[in-house]
Amino acid sequence: EKGGFDHFMLKEIFEQPQTIFDCMRGRLNSQAGTITMAGIQQHADQIINASRIVIIACGTSWHAGLVAEYIFEELCRINVEVEYASEFRYRNPVINKGDVILAVSQSGETADTLVAIETAKEKGALILGVVNVVGSSISRTSHGGAYTHAGPEIGVASTKAFTAQLVVLTLIALKVAYMKGAINDSRYKGLLAELDLIPEKVAWVLNHHEQIKSIAEKYKDARDFLYLGRGYNFPVALEGALKLKEISYIHAEGYPAAEMKHGPIALVDEQLPVVVVATKDQYHEKVVSNIQEIKARKGKVIGIITEGDETSAALCDDVISVPEADEIVAPMLSVVPLQLLSYFIGVAKGCNVDQPRNLAKSVTVE
Ligand code: M6R
Questions:
Q1: ipTM score assigned to the predicted complex
Q2: So where's the catalytic machinery, residue-wise (predicted)?
Q3: Would the pTM count as exceeding 0.90?
């Protein structure tokens, strides 16, 4: 049932070109310029007129929510807040009638997320679910939303569910932006075309897995890792660090690259691998200067860079390339090498990558 792969985690990482395709199938028609999502369309007026969107989630799903915050604010010009479900539910949050809550969950059973949306529902908010498991508690409690259709995810570390969440959240943002008239036609059409290309670009990254494996073997004995990114790729840095902690038990922290100088740079020495997501986007130059700051302190830089970017490559100790893409969709690509890096480090250390110690697939206790 692992389909010839050694672990479910690897199988699920490699399924992503297909799961991303499945997630867009029947929804995205880039030729016609349409996005069909009945569970969003039904609530169109309320979403377009929302004074704010509150995204509620835990763990990896929370990271998908953070990416969505950047995308919604950019494309829809709606104020977005992203909340850890566990914090939100216990602090007597302010919820107004016009608020739209987006609950993001792979399992649809995460206790903290479920209780948080029930609380918000009682206070009159519209609840939309972005959930993978059909018929799960969170999907049943929601007024609407959209399934991620990534298929069953067995590995405790979430991989294909995350990229499917990014796709669904991006589709929702594009649909809302279009209905609201907040996006111009050519940007809208351009992004739909970009989405169409994601499955083959993810496949391209997967085809380079051997190179990621050798980088993993080189750094597997490091005690700590730092992950840095900016903008749309900042949450990808958080996700890369979480994946490494779960799978290999190596301490890792994700940071927005610019925060380095406010503390974490003190950690940098010749022992510290720093994974920097430095793909070509509006922040690229700034990220390159962050790489230079790390190199000046003898840190080891593993750069996730855009294919063909020789200038950035020359600054890094090791590089992993991803195909060029619009920055809005870039996290769907840049997270994939980080999933593989964690996987290969975990395997090289002899860890149980499918069932890491102390973790459960769905956290149904608070
Ligand atoms: O099922 P959910 O998406 O609600 O789960 C949320 C987290 O428990 C989950 O993402 C967890 O952090 C994963 N183990 C991450 O790989």
A1: 0.99
A2: 361 (for fru-6p isomerization activity)
A3: yes
